[in-house]
Structure prediction request, 858 residues.
Amino acid sequence: MKKSLSLVVAAAMTLTTASVAFADTAPATTDLTAQQKFDALKELGIFNGYPDGSAGLDKQMTRAEFAKVLTKLAKLTENAAAAKIYTDVPATHWAAPFIGASTEAKLMNGLGANKFGPSGQVTIEQIAKVADLVAGLEPVEGDVSGKVSAWAKGYVAAAVKAGLLPELPSYQTNATRELLVEVTYDLAKPVEKELKAVKAVQSGSKKITVTFNHAASAEDKAPLTYELKSGPTSYPVTATYSEDNTTAVLSAAYLPTGDFTLTVKGSDPINLKIEAEAAKKIDITATTVQPAANQDLGVKVYNQFGEAMSVSPTISSYNVTKGKQLGNGNTLNLQAGAADEAALNDNILVTAVYPAAGLSINKTLKVTNGSAATSIKIDEVKPLNGSARVSINQTGLVLPMTLVDANGATVKLPAGTATLANGQNSLSYAGLVFFISDSAIVNGFSVDTNGVITFNTLSKAGTVYITVTNPATQATANLALVVNDVAKVKTFQLGNSGSVIVKGEKVVLPYTAIDTFGNPIAPKDLSLANVKFNAFGTEITPVKNAKGELEFKFNQTGSTNIYVYVDGVQQTSSVGIEVRDEAKYTAVNGIKDVATSYEVGASNEFDQDNITLIDNYGRVSNVAAGHFAVTSSAPGIVAYENGKLVAKAAGTATITVSSDANTGITNHTFTVSAVASSSITSYAIDSIGTLYGKSDGSAKATHAAEVTLVGKTASGVTVALVSDVPDFVTVLDESVLKTTGTSVYGLKAGKTTVSAYFNGAKVADQEVTVSEDAPVVKTVEFDKDEYTTKVGATPTVKVTVKDQYGKVIANPVGSILVNDKTIVDNNLKGLKVGSTTITYVASNNTQDTAVVVVEAAN
Prediction:
C-alpha cells in the first residue's frame, strides 16, 4: 500500500514503515497527460526541465538524476558527505547531495566495489524496486507477463498490482523520463481524507474483498454499512477488516452467480460479477503416514480462490512395497492386524481423481514413525490461555515437540495416548522413548490426529524433567518443566465501602489481594481458603458474589475494626467501620411515569413500579408489591381501579399513596385533574424520530412507526387522552414517506411533514426525517445483569438487539461467548458451582455482558 508524502519523509528519515495512505490497488491517474504531470512535479521542485525548457520525456534517466528525484520526492535532507563512500562521486559532483541522501535512506544502493555509476541508466525493474520502497509495498508472488530478472520479479509484480507500472513486454530495458514522471506523480498524489471504497472483487465462493482509498481508522469504520444487491434482492454480509485496515472481506451465507452492486456508505456503488465456484486444483496434503489407524491422507480439492471445496474426489491407495491394493477413501487403517496393515518404510501410492474437473494427482507416502527422526526439538511449554504460569491440575497443556527426518521432512506421530505404568518413569511410543522424572507431576500424554502432544499436570508441584530419545538415531531432547502450586493469597487489604453500613444488610467492601507470586489477584480468581475475617471479636464470613465482590453482613450495631488473617497471620492494616441500626422507611418518596392530567375516560397504569420509598438513611427504592395503597379524595372524578388511575368526570382529586412496609411511613399526596374533551384546545404528534427508508417499500414491514397524539389545554398542560390514535394521517411528500393506516414508513432519504387528523380536522404536524442508511446494530442488552441456575440446568437468557432507528432486530447475527467454560458450556448449561461472565457480541462488535451464577443441584 502507498504512503502519503508526509509519511514517506518519516520513513526515509527513520528507515521504518509508516502508516499507509493509499490502497495497494489504487489506479494510476489517467486524467492528465505526462507533460501536465511533469509540469505539476516541476512546480513542486521534484523535476527540472532541460535548459531549452523541454521536459525530455523521451530521454532516458541517469542514476544521478534518479537520485535527485527521489530526494525531492521524499523530502530527504541533502547529504553530500554520505556519498563519500563512492569513489566515482567526487564532492564537487552536482548530484553528490542527492546520491548521499538516497543512499542514507536506503532508497538506492551502489553497484559494488564502492561505485555508484551516476551516469549509468536506470532500468524499469530498478524503478519498480525503488517505487515499492517509497510506497511501502512488499514484494508479492505472482506471474509477470513481461521479461524480468529473477531478483526483481516480486518488486515488479507489486508495482504492477499497485498501478505504479503498466504491464510491459520487458522490464529490463532502460526507463524513460516519461515513465518515471508517471510513477512519481502517483507517489506524490495528495491523500484523500474521506474514506472511500474504490474496488470490490470476488475473493471466495462466498466472499468479496473491498479495497479502500486509504487505511480505515476506527472512526471511519464505525458508520460503515455494506449493501450487496443483485437486482431487487439483498444479500446480508459481515465485514472483517484486514490487519492494516486497507481492505475488508465481506462474507455472505450464499452468493449466486450474476451481476451485483455493492454500496458502501459514503462511496459510489461498485458493480461486480460473482462467478460460480469451480474446482481448479487437487492436492494430497499428508507428507507421511504411520502404522496406525485413522491415517488422514489430506486429499483436498481447491476452487479458483484457493479455498477447500466440500466435494468428494475418488481416492485409491496401493502399498507398493507389499504389492497390495488398499481400501479406498481419505482415511487408512494401517495398524498391525488390520486388513491394510503396513510396516515401517512401506511406500503407499495414493491416487486422487476428481473427474468432474479433470483433476488428478499421485503421491507416494512413506510409512514412518518417531524412529525416523534424526532431530528432536522441544520448545518451552506455554501456560494455558488466561493463565500466568503452568500450575497443578491443569489439562490440555501442549508439549511443542518437532521431529525431523534425514531429508528435512517433518515426522508426525500417530494419534493415541500413553501412560506411565505404576512405578515406572519411561514409556515407548511410536518408536520413541519418553522419560518422565516424576509421575506424580506428569504421568502421560495424548497425541491428536495432527500429531500435537498434550498432557495434564497432577496435584503435585515441582520440577519435572522430560527426555525424548530415538534409539534408532540417538536423537534426543530435554525439557525441565516447573509446575507451580495454585497461586493463593499472600497479602490482603480491605477498603472502606463508601456507603452506610446497616445491620442485617449486605454491604460490599473493596479489597486488594496479592498472590504468592506478587501479582494482583483478579476478582474472578480470588479464593478465600486461607483468608479469615474478624469483627466484633468473632469470625465473620463474607460471600463472594458473581462479580467477585465481597459482601459482608453484620448482625450487631456499633463501631468495630475488621481484622484480616492470611494463613493465620494478621495483616498490617485493619478497617474501621460503624454498623448502624436497621433501616426503616420513613416516607413515600414520590411517583414516577404517571400522568397528572387526563381527558375524562382516560386511564394510566399505577402500581409498585411507579412508587418509591425513602428510608432513614436517605436511600430511595421501589415499594414492594402488596405493600402500598392508593386512595382518591374524589373517586367520582379520579378513581383507583384495578391498578389504574381512571378519570371519571371533570374536576380535580387528591391522590394519597401510603405504604405498610413498616410503621411510621409518611404518605405522599399529589393532585390529578380530569378535563372534558372540550377543554383540550390543541394536539401534538408524539415524537416519531428518524425513520429508515427503502425505495422498494420493504421498510414497511420492519420500520413503520405508529403516529400517536397527546392533548394540550389552553394553558399548555399535556393531557393523557382516551385514545391517542388519530383518525387519519397524511404526508406532504409521498416519495419520501408513505402512510399505512395511522403508521408511516420511509421510501428514500429526505424530510417531509406528517399531518394528523382527529375529529374531522387536521390537529397536528411534525417534520420527519428519513434515512437510507442500512440498519446496523446500535445497542445490545441482556434482559438481566445476572442469571442464576443450577448444575445441570440452563438459564433462560434473552438478548435484545436494536438498530440505530430503535427497532428490534428479529434475527441478529451474533454470539454469546462464555468467559469460563468450566462453569457453563457454550449453551450456558451449568457445569459446576461458580460464576462466569457471558458476553453477547454482535456482527459489528457491539457488546453487552452479564453474569451467570451456578449453584449446586438439589
Observations:
- The first strand starts at residue 197 and ends at 204.
- Residues 381 and 399 are 6 Å apart (CA to CA).
- The chain has nine helices and 65 strands.
- The two ends are 62 Å apart (CA to CA).
